[in-house]
Each structure stands twice: as structure tokens, then as C-alpha cells.
């Protein structure tokens, strides 16, 4: 198993009483709530935290894309990844991802990612997403075109990376007389592609196709639903005639570890509950606009996301396996159990969430890196070593 530190870069200085006037920290919350001087401090603090993960031996660090909200301050994640590319030396940098259907020109992503891949000497992981429903409100894009625009943009980018240019591309949504991307990718024939999702069955089937075999990431989901979606990917792969590897499956989950269970619960409680009830606050019509999902996928995603509806507590999300919290021994036991039962090869931990302050974030990163990761590396490497022997 490989270990990644995922950061959302939230606006941690948010006035938490905003919900007395507004129903969400997304789209409709006035940007007058944002103080650029505080933002300057936060951005540099968050970059320091991601860089620290490189020093502590993480396999990768992850950034992502969201628009017009206090939940995550990375509308253009390539800017963040670019800042990290020269200050890190060993970690993979995963951009998870760019929301392809929002773009009028997907070749921008082809160029951004190849620049990052060249600067880092091949440490880029390219994440492609459709973007959650709120992004379609933010950008004024028709959510009913989401799948079509995503697939066409994906095809254009992959061809731009792998086919000699110039060539012509003619599609329903994108039309280019010249596709001739400079620079070319450092990794040949292209960077690895990961597909984060909320659990769309169409996305799982598409990612598992033998022509792609992309790593599928399940984001912030109850453990029971995580197991269901991981099993679905494996069954789809089997239907295609191959066995999916653990390298093709990943899980993103918030986590907090401290000296004891009691200390971990006490320190994490106000910040995870703020994350759940303030930063994630969003009406269903904003999260899942009409046309965004098929009826089949809508039912599955609603079931998964229904687990985070209403007021959430640290106990309720821990019970569902949506938040891992405790002493190193407790966290090791939980993660080992989930990995054995579900069989994912990439673990993306959200080690800063909501209002978690710098000193607790740093402590969380250190204890996790020194007392959890090495244990799990040994445990998950053992079967491979035994098989080799």
C-alpha cells in the first residue's frame, strides 16, 4: 500500500456563523467573507504542510480543484502543484484532478500537466474528474453534458500526449485544426491517470475498461459503500477478462492520530464536526443538479451521501468508517482491517480538515508518518515478499 497526504486547503478562518444567513459555504456565500491577508498566511502554511510530507517519507501529496467556496482554495490546482514541484524532491504530486467538462479548451490541461511532469522529472499523477454538481453552478455548464464533455476532453488530452502532432481533432464539444502539444510528457507514453469519483457506476465501468485500467479513487464515503464500489470495480474488471490489482483502487479519508484515543477524540472533535457541518454544508440540488447522474448512479450516490446529511458528530462518522481517529495502535488496526477486507492499494489521508490548526496538523502528520505508515508498509508488503520467496 502507498500513502498520500491529501490537502483541501480550506479557508480555515471562515466566520462559522455564516449559516445564520446563508445555506452553504459553496457558490452563494459572498466572497466578502474572505480576507486576502489571512488567505496569504493560509496558502503558505498549507504549502509548508505538503512539503513536510515529502520530508517524512510519504509516497505522494495530493491537491484538487473546487470553485467559489470556502471548502477548498484551489480553483486552479496546477498553480499549487507548480509551487510544490520545485520544493519537493521525492513525492509524487497528484492533481486530483482537473474537472474536464468545465473547460472550453481541454488542451490547457494537456499543457499544464506536461509542464508539471517535465519540471518534476516524472513525479506527476494526472487526475481527471467530472467535478461535483456545485461546480456546474459555479461555471454555468450544463450538467446533462457532463459525461459527454468529460469523455471527449479525456480523449483529446490523451491523444495530445501520445500522438505526434500536429493533428486535427473534431468532436461534438471540441474542435481543433491543430493539436500539437509542447512540451511532450516526461513520462512515456503519458503520466498515470487516476479517476476520483463519488461512486458513479458509469465512471467505474469506464475506468476499469481494459483499454484504460485507470486507478479509481473513492472519496469521502461510508466504509460499507466503499467496499461496494471497490467490489464493483473488481467485478467489472473480471467481466472484461482480467483481475484488477490493488494498484487500481484507492480510498480518500480524513484521519487524526494522537498519543491516545482520548486525546485524539478531544483534539479532533471540534474541527471534524466543523468540517462536516459548516464546510461541507450544501443543499442536495447544488450537489446533484438534474442531469448530472443517471438514475442508477443517482440512487447509489444519494445512498452514500445520505450518510452525511443532517447534523454530523465525530461519533457518527467514525461509526460509519468515514473518519479514522485514535491512538497509533487504534488507527493502525482500523486501516489494516479495511485494507484486508476491501483491498485498496492507495490510501489518501486528509490530515488537515476544516479548522484544524497548524500545530495539530503538524502533530497529526508526524505521528501518522512515524507510527502508522511504517507498520502498514510492512504489513501490506509481507504477502508480496512471501509470494516472491
Automatic annotation (TrEMBL):
GO terms for cellular component: cytosol. Residues 44-340 form the Luciferase-like domain. Keywords: Oxidoreductase. It is an enzyme of class 1 (oxidoreductase). It comes from the Bacteria. Its EC number is 1.-.-.-. InterPro entries: Bact_Lucif_Oxidored, Luciferase-like_dom, Luciferase-like_sf. GO terms for molecular function: oxidoreductase activity, acting on paired donors, with incorporation or reduction of molecular oxygen. This is LLM class flavin-dependent oxidoreductase. It comes from Microbaculum marinum.
Amino acid at each position: 500500500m502507498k500513502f498520500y497526504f491529501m490537502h483541501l486547503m480550506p479557508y480555515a478562518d471562515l466566520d462559522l456563523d455564516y449559516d445564520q444567513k446563508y445555506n452553504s459555504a459553496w457558490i452563494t456565500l459572498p466572497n466578502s467573507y474572505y480576507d486576502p491577508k489571512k488567505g496569504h498566511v493560509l496558502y503558505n502554511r498549507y504549502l509548508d504542510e505538503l512539503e513536510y510530507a515529502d520530508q517524512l517519507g510519504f509516497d505522494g501529496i495530493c491537491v484538487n480543484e473546487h470553485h467559489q467556496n470556502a471548502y477548498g482554495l484551489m480553483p486552479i490546482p496546477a498553480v499549487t502543484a507548480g509551487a510544490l514541484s520545485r520544493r519537493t524532491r521525492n513525492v509524487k504530486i497528484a492533481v486530483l484532478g482537473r474537472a474536464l467538462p468545465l473547460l472550453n479548451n481541454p488542451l490547457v490541461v494537456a499543457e499544464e500537466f506536461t509542464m508539471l511532469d517535465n519540471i518534476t522529472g516524472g513525479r506527476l499523477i494526472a487526475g481527471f474528474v467530472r467535478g461535483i454538481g456545485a461546480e456546474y453552478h459555479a461555471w454555468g455548464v450544463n450538467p446533462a453534458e457532463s459525461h459527454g464533455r468529460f469523455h471527449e476532453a479525456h480523449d483529446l488530452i490523451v491523444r495530445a500526449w501520445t500522438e505526434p502532432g500536429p493533428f486535427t481533432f473534431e468532436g461534438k464539444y471540441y474542435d481543433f485544426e491543430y493539436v500539437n502539444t509542447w512540451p511532450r510528457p516526461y513520462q512515456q507514453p503519458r503520466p498515470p491517470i487516476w479517476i476520483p469519483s463519488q461512486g458513479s457506476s458509469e465512471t467505474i465501468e469506464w475506468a476499469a475498461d481494459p483499454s484504460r485500467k485507470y486507478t479509481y479513487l473513492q472519496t469521502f464515503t461510508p466504509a460499507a459503500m466503499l467496499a461496494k464500489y471497490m467490489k464493483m470495480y473488481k467485478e467489472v474488471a473480471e467481466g472484461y477478462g482480467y483481475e484488477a490489482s490493488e494498484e487500481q483502487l484507492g480510498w480518500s479519508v480524513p484521519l487524526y492520530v494522537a498519543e491516545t484515543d482520548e486525546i485524539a477524540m478531544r483534539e479532533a472533535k471540534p474541527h471534524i464536526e466543523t468540517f462536516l457541518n459548516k464546510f461541507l454544508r450544501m443543499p442536495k440540488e447544488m450537489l446533484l443538479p438534474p442531469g448530472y447522474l443517471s438514475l442508477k448512479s443517482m440512487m447509489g450516490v444519494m445512498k452514500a451521501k445520505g450518510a452525511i446529511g443532517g447534523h454530523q458528530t465525530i461519533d457518527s462518522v467514525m461509526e460509519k468508517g468515514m473518519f479514522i481517529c485514535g491512538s497509533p495502535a487504534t488507527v493502525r488496526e482500523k486501516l489494516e482491517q479495511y485494507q484486508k477486507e476491501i483491498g485498496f492499494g492507495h490510501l489518501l489521508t486528509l490530515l488537515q480538515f476544516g479548522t484544524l490548526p497548524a500545530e495539530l496538523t503538524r502533530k497529526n502528520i508526524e505521528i501518522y508518518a512515524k507510527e502508522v505508515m511504517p507498520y502498514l508498509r510492512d504489513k501490506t508488503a509481507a504477502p508480496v515478499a512471501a509470494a516472491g520467496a
